[in-house]
Amino acid sequence: MGAMRRNALIASMSVGMVAIEPRLREGGTWHGAVQALRRRLCPVAVWDNGTPGARALAGLGATLVASPD
Fold first, then answer.
1. How far apart are CA 15 and CA 2, in angstroms?
2. CB count, 10 Å around CB of 14?
3. Of 29, 23, 27, nearest in space to 55 by CA
4. Cα(65)–Cα(55) distance, rounded to whole angstroms?
5. DSSP reduced 3-state for 63
6. Of 55, 53, 49, 42, whose CA–CA distance to 69 is shortest?
7. What is the pLDDT of residues 23-69, one digit of tens each?
8. CA pair distance 37, 11, nearest whole angstrom
9. Is 42 within 8 Å of 36 (Cβ atoms)?
């Protein structure tokens, strides 16, 4: 529980977050990005690699980017 609170604090102080290859509904990348989007902690970008996780985050409001660079 402490790690999730810490991550929310870090996201809220960030200019933005980039999610690279998030697994749909699994892992810290997915959960951190969803939390940032739902709580409007910071803008979220996700690499548009065609995975279900990337598409789902885009559906929640993340910006798709063509390259992780």
1. 22
2. 13
3. 23
4. 11
5. strand
6. 49
7. 999 998 999 999 999 999 999 999 999 999 999 999 999 999 998 77
8. 10
9. yes
